[in-house]
Amino acid sequence: MSRPFPPPAFKIGDLVVDPPVLQAPMAGFTNAAFRQMVREYGGAGLIATEMVNARGFQWMDEHTTEHPDRLWGVAEEARPLAVQIWDNDPETMAKVGRRLVEEYQVSVVDINFGCPVRQVTEKAHSGSYLLRTPERMFQIISKLVKACAPTPVTAKIRLGCSPESINCNDIAQVVEEAGAAALTVHGRTAKDMFRGHADWDRISEIKSHLKNIPLIGNGDLDSAEKVVHAFKTYDVDGVMIARACLGRPWLFAQAAAALQGQPVPPDPSLAEQRDCMLHHYTLVKDRFGEEKGTVLMRKFACCYAQGKYGARMFRTHVAKVSTAEEFYHVVDEYFPLTVKEKPVSAQ
């Protein structure tokens, strides 16, 4: 299938998403520091927070404790900004959605119906677990839409709970009928977790089951070339980049350039990538303090090193740091500054 190219901007409610490339909400990663890194490089049409537990947020609010760290920076940072929430109770979701609109003035409230993690699914009967109960999804979405109006509400789903129970086409219709302003689909089932490959043909098929709302595809987009291919090949209005951007916040700018037929900016040099990581560390440390910030930065540092020669040695050492002095020492000694090389065959 040949699609219009370059792809036009699209709208979520009254919000124009331009370029039509979104940053995925990712638990434990897309905090305010990471979002600032993405903004500094540019190229993302819509940025999202980590997913927020609606019930936990409500409890904190009722007990006048500090709001969740996952809402760090939301009130002050630039717009547009989407906040993703999860739970299985329509009333709780509606209350929290309204607070996000009134107090935080967010651009979009997104509902997580896609998380496959057992703590969210089997223990809390939320996330992708709800794909087996479309009627509950309808109740959650419709109540949230009413509570958040005129701020748009969106939903993120997977293809189904398992390869044997793919129901994304039916779920898409439920999402639209309940009043959601856009649908994002990750091209795997919950049972797949992140194994195998995202099924973009399945994602594309969903478009014919929607009447008016935009469809956003998600899964395996790790280069500007793959973003271009997705728009040229599949029937989607937007794409969402997830894990591939964690150590590469410049990926959105590369994708945006490619979509406009412009030269794709090269990756920063390895020294520049190291400096980017150190800037990221400063943002995290300033918010959480040296000890907590350093521990939190371990996983981000591993993302920046991924795919580089010497990454394993760096990961081994950075996983143990707990002070700024230790972090800077490990970076100076072990952060990879050469590209990953293929092993030379024995003569």
Automatic annotation (TrEMBL):
The keyword Cytoplasm does not apply. It is an enzyme of class 1 (oxidoreductase). CDD domains: DUS_like_FMN (cd02801). It comes from the Bacteria. Gene3D superfamilies: Aldolase class I (3.20.20.70), Putative flavin oxidoreducatase, domain 2 (1.10.1200.80). Keywords: Flavoprotein, FMN, NADP, Nucleotide-binding, Oxidoreductase, RNA-binding, tRNA processing, tRNA-binding. This is tRNA-dihydrouridine synthase. InterPro entries: Aldolase_TIM, DUS-like_FMN-bd, DUS_fam, DusB-like, tRNA-dHydroUridine_Synthase_C, tRNA_hU_synthase_CS. It comes from Stieleria bergensis. Residues 23-332 form the DUS-like FMN-binding domain. SUPFAM superfamilies: FMN-linked oxidoreductases (SSF51395). The active site is at 115 (proton donor). It catalyses: a 5,6-dihydrouridine in tRNA + NAD(+) = a uridine in tRNA + NADH + H(+); a 5,6-dihydrouridine in tRNA + NADP(+) = a uridine in tRNA + NADPH + H(+). Its cofactor is FMN. Belongs to the dus family. The lineage of its organism: Bacteria, Pseudomonadati, Planctomycetota, Planctomycetia, Pirellulales. Its EC number is 1.3.1.-. Catalyzes the synthesis of 5,6-dihydrouridine (D), a modified base found in the D-loop of most tRNAs, via the reduction of the C5-C6 double bond in target uridines. FMN binds at residues 25-27, 84, 156, 186, 242-243.
